[in-house]
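#onboarding

Welcome to the new folks! Below is a worked example of what a typical request in this channel looks like: someone posts a single protein sequence, and someone else replies with the predicted structure as tokens. Don't worry about understanding the tokens yet, we'll cover that in week two.

Example request:
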Amino acid sequence: MKSLPPFITLWNSFEACSTPWKNGGGKTKEIAIFPSASSVAENNFLWRLSEAEIQQDGEFSSFPGFDRLLSLMEGARLELQHGPHRSSLATGDIASFSGDDLTKASLPAGPVHDVGLIFRRGLVQAKMKEIPFLGKARSFSLTAKTNFFIAAAGRFQLSIYPSEWNLKLEEQDAVRIDRDSNPGERLILIEPKEKLSRLIAVELNY
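Example response:
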């Protein structure tokens, strides 16, 4: 397999470091943050994508001026309360909420594993969706400035065109594909290795 170009980044969940939450309710693995030299602690980032394990009921950190998207990768159910509003997530569901609000999470059926995106309101346009696979390959056009695919369930073989860059995604791994200087359309062909598989796709324009 040839080396990947700079606009493609593979993220390995097994090798990534976990950061415990201050309240002890979970831990987070950062997939990517932009700009790359920014940090959540200094609140100088434009967007941040991460995986998290929520192990007990508790509050999320607040992020005034940011919006959030969250998808449940593993676990039966996640209950979220944002002020007077409540949402209930099953595996594969997407929640959209403001980082301004105090958000409380409860786990009626035990610990869960999620993918979360935090992005600055008014400066970033973001989408998150689940893509189910039933044993057949699917292709997608990559039109956003930055695209992520996270293997929520199952393993995948990816081919990115033109030039046919090939890579493998193990379960819980992610790939980032940035828009490069190529003016033409870029396509991705995704082939699942198991019959019932799921990806979470994220699109970012900023």
